[in-house]
Fold each of these.
Amino acid sequence: MVKIISSRKLTKRRQYQLQTTVHEGALAVSGGLHLSEQSLSSMTETLENALHNLNNWVLVNRGLVGHIKGFVQLSGKALMVSTTGNEVNYQIIENGETDVKENTLSLTAIVFGVDQLALEEQLIMILESLEKEEKMMLKNEAVMIDYIDDEGVVYAMSIIKYVDFGGKRFVLATERTNHHTHHHHDEGVCNCHEHHESLQDQHLYVFEWLSEVPGGKLIPVNDETLEALRSILDAR
Amino acid sequence: MKILILGGFLGSGKTSVLLQLARYLVEQSTGDSPTRVAIIENEIGQIGIDDKLLRSCGYTVTDIFSGCVCCSLNSDLISGIQEIRKETDPQWLVIEATGVAFPDKIAETLFKNLGLESRIITLVDAKRWQRIRIPLENLIIGQLNDAHLILLNKTDLVEEAELLAIESELQELNDAARKFRISGIRPIEAAILQVMAHG
Ligand SMILES: Nc1nc2c(ncn2[C@@H]2O[C@H](COP(=O)(O)OP(=O)(O)OP(=O)(O)O)[C@@H](O)[C@H]2O)c(=O)[nH]1
Ligand SMILES: [Mg+2]
């Protein structure tokens, strides 16, 4: 059977060095990322979540996890994360290799009984969201993401800062353009104030950041959370 | 050069055990110079993970990626071993097979092509035995074939009754092999490591 694949996947495959081998009914999909400095602690949690999600995805798709493993190589330090379908194990190696030219993340998923393209797609999503988080948290680069509210309205947001509080991760984001797209409203009929604000008095919006969702997801916070966060945010 | 082949299903604990075994072999060094242990890592993925872990722990590793030395890549294995012999001529060579390899085929390749004998140590994942025993029967049973030693691993995660049931199945599948229970995330008894190395 011939499969039709989006041409954008070519770019993604190259970007994340995605390669697949098939052996004894097992699919082994590998990919990688270049990382910036000292990202071990944030990587651990994110990778753990990503592997949990991939386990669930395989389960839902009636496949069988052979072994999913990730390795983060930094200078003098390394992290190994691994799962065979249930719990996710990780191991931090101190006093590791110091002759490391580049900080990297390598990821391999060996899985039975799932569709190859779908599995590759899952790996791309994991690598994409890791890259996004890394940009956001370490390089302090703005990360672009859409926020969709209860009404289905899509807002193009730029995340500019993150804070960890009470075991959760929150982000500060601005709306990227002056115009957002309305899915359910008539185009052109809009009563929103945001449209008419100048960039100078742009608002910073607070969201909770869900890293469990591939690519990450913004969800609104309630007033109490906002109040609790305000003192921390003001202090920065 | 003594050769040990570590086999067993994906994620059964081969690398965890290899790390302990390699350390044991080096610690057992007698005489002036430390025992030289060479490691070959075979992984089916294009990007190696285990080799990176081993290097982080200070070992030198020869790696063979993207396929299996028990079939498509057996010429890579032979040339890899010849190179190791020429360059470091170690006392020990430990080969970690992929989780989908048949270790007996690797041993056969080494014997036929290089005239080298090897010992097969097969890891069994106690936690996943029930889950994979039927769906992957050919592979799981094939991996026990001709094993000199079978290590029932991840015993920390499984109840005694289940361990006994697995052990009796293993006995039926390969009654000649010696069998031990281990937990690869904890220190393995020296007595067991000694059997792994010397029989
Ligand atoms: N609880 C528990 N976990 C273990 C034990 N041995 C290994 N593990 C974990 O199981 C996972 C797989 O172990 P590895 O040593 O990488 O297995 P492997 O056979 O080398 O895997 P592949 O090379 O991918 O086939 C890792 O997350 C280990 O930490 C054990 O005895 N008990
Ligand atoms: Mg391994």
Amino acid sequence: MRAAIALAETDPNLRIALISKVYPMRSHTCAAEGGAAGVIKPDDSFDLHFDDTVGGGDWLSDQDCVEYFVHEAPKELLQLEHWGCPWNREADGSVAVRPFGGMKKKRTWFAADKSGFHILHTLFQTSLQFPSITRYDEYYALDLLVDDGRCQGVTAMEMRSGQLRQFHAKAVIIAGGGAGRMFPFSTNGAIKTGDGMALAYRAGAPLKDMEFVQYHPTGLPNTGSLLTEACRGEGGILVNKNGRRFLQDYGMGPETPVGKPQLKTMELGPRDRVSQSIWHEIQKGNAVSTQWGDCVLLDMRHLGEKTINERLPLVRELCASYLQVDIVKDPVPIRPVVHYMMGGISTNTKAATPLPGLFAAGECACVSLNGANRLGSNSLIELLVFGRRAALSAIEHIQGLPAANTAALNARAEETQKRIGELFSRTDGTESMSGLRKEMMDTMEKNVGIYRTEEGLQEGVSKIHELRQRYRRVILTDKTSVFNTDLFQALELGSMLDCAEAVTVGALARKESRGSHQRLDYVERDDKKFLCHTMVHHQGLDVPRVDYLDVVITKSPPGVRDYSGDHK
Amino acid sequence: MTQMKERLVQLEVLRYNPDTDTEAHFQRYEVTCYEEWVVLDALNKVKADIDPTLNFRWSCHMAVCGSCGMMINGEPKLSCHTFLRDYEGVIRVEPLAHFPIERDLVTAPDDFMEKLKRVKPYIIAKEKKPISEGEYKQTPAQLMKFRQYSMCINCMLCYAACPEYGLSPSFIGPAALTMAHRYNQDSRDGGRMERQEVVATHEGVWECTFVGACSEACPAHVDPASALQQMKITSSIDWIVEHLIPGGKK
Ligand SMILES: Cc1cc2nc3c(=O)[nH]c(=O)nc-3n(C[C@H](O)[C@H](O)[C@H](O)COP(=O)(O)OP(=O)(O)OC[C@H]3O[C@@H](n4cnc5c(N)ncnc54)[C@H](O)[C@@H]3O)c2cc1C
Ligand code: SF4
Ligand code: FES
């Protein structure tokens, strides 16, 4: 939506189709609670945001990209402010910022604990004033139309009627979101099935750094619902069954006073480190056992009812409804949960993919901002910065393009039609959709979780590969045309399997530990061999091909990630 | 924390497929659930294990995306936030009232989407300024004047609850009017007069008879009834200003 608005504003004569499989304000951005980072306060600087992002990403971020991003971020947040986003304010009327994990300064703009929700609705509502944006709500994108070596459109199904539609376009921007649903335990909504990534990948654009999957430390153990990092930003603490603040035992100490969180240390360490510490704590037998498995405790009682109601109302609500715990009175059990894909469609700093005419932004893209571990509150702002950037690049791209070969595009679209037709008419199907989906999720959890090994990954690669073969025999129960979610779930499963294979293959090839990718058999970071991006190329039904791309380093050579409190 | 208890839940779900059915009918499902589950979990289990042809919308499972509204035992509810523990016996699940059914529990929200657009739910700046000049100052007190009304998740439960909307579908309705009010109340906005053309009509606030069902149904505590009440007051002030004081209209 950010891209659509930028297109409409820049050139009102463009015809813009906004295609989404859900009504746009239902997109999963609405679930983001914490906020969006951008340098605005006088004690902060672009260099500090740069350093936090690059260090947080364990030096796998492209530094030219980070540089562009930190400069654009505040402009985008201000733009949203001008569009009406209800950011929290200081007493003098200026925008308020809060602390966030891995950030050295307070720089996270927030709208209570509904930041993503307000960003999404502000964008959606703002987009309504542009007549050149035509929305195609509840259209499911199926395939990209590629001809003459460039992307020239997309095919989609109108969900309400089951009708296939072609969109011929000079440029396509994908903003399809993440793929966390390939894991069984995830903060991601049902729609985050990696369709956008799979769309590009099948059309020949490589997926980058897919093995980097972020676990958020604080998920509710039963539903996977996320308790925002702001819980810790506001002063919540993590304790084990003995009441010990165990993060101090994993290089994030010394202990800070309760209720006085210090930036970039203890509970405000980066997500990968905090999640990994919880994993170790559970291995050591220091977990609290609950009916939903082993957990540690998040204690916010000392914040008091007033602060909790003012700053963390949604968190209180979620814990009360889904777990029947009142955080004012009791600590809440939590465990790490799959949250975010650092990897995605490979894009450069201009949000362009290697496939001409195809651009991507948001979680589905990997512009190499987040490197091996995203910092909380860098994603909401990433999708704004690079959404706009994608629009500008698309406008550059379409200047002087030759006319499309309509016959060739129609022929491509017929292939899609055949694929869908075959799925409907299949009579020899033997595989149930929910069965395959469960096997995929179990494999991802077991073999490609927080800690990984050669053996586990080998098994994961062959299992996912097998599932992709078996997917060709998946059977639809529902063969009717109107809002057939059996069909869409089957298509989503196809997308997730493609993404799952890229994650697994990338993880197997990366024989080092960096950021969120941790291997028990290669425990060190290896900058000699792996200071590079994994690029996974789709090879039809075969195992994908992997090659590498160098990381762009401009001013910050790889260093040590230090989250001990002594280091300021 | 309570212990997780299993329970056999009976659901009676309205089914309708325009491809194959001439009219809607109820279908019974029996499914084993955990006591702590919500109705949406039960429906998902039915879809995965019993009947893949059952259709409904959902995404976030945390009462924020607004997708999963349906009638549960006759009341408009978010199914992801309606707990089995609050129900006994057969639970009847139907699509949201007052909207046409697309299929099963999926309704067509076109009318709401169109009305939302009509109230111009975006900032019409009082004074435009470039981004380089920084933010518009807004004090916490100014923010509080509209924040509650900006929490609307567009779930349309208030429309399903509203007797007026049921009787006269041209009524712009609670959520869209509240959204107009939200922008009117925003210190950065100067678009109230433009919105009044839509809002202060019989399709607008004057249609509302203050039953208050919208606020009762609202899962996001937006309290649309209070927004409509405030708007009626300001709209009658406008009316006086426009007609009794020459030149009073901007
Ligand atoms: C619970 C939670 C909390 C978070 N909190 C924060 C935070 O505090 N700060 C932060 O910076 N980040 C946060 N994140 C991360 C951030 O919210 C996401 O990375 C970001 O919102 C992704 O936005 P997006 O626009 O890329 O994708 P989405 O918002 O998921 O949108 C994807 C869009 O693509 C469409 N789409 C997908 N597939 C298809 C298809 N086949 N056909 C047509 N349309 C399709 C969907 O309909 C949807 O409109 C959080 C994430 C979660 C899950
Ligand atoms: S006002 Fe409340 S009930 Fe109505 S659409 Fe908004 S959130 Fe839903
Ligand atoms: S699933 Fe999002 S509101 Fe219920």
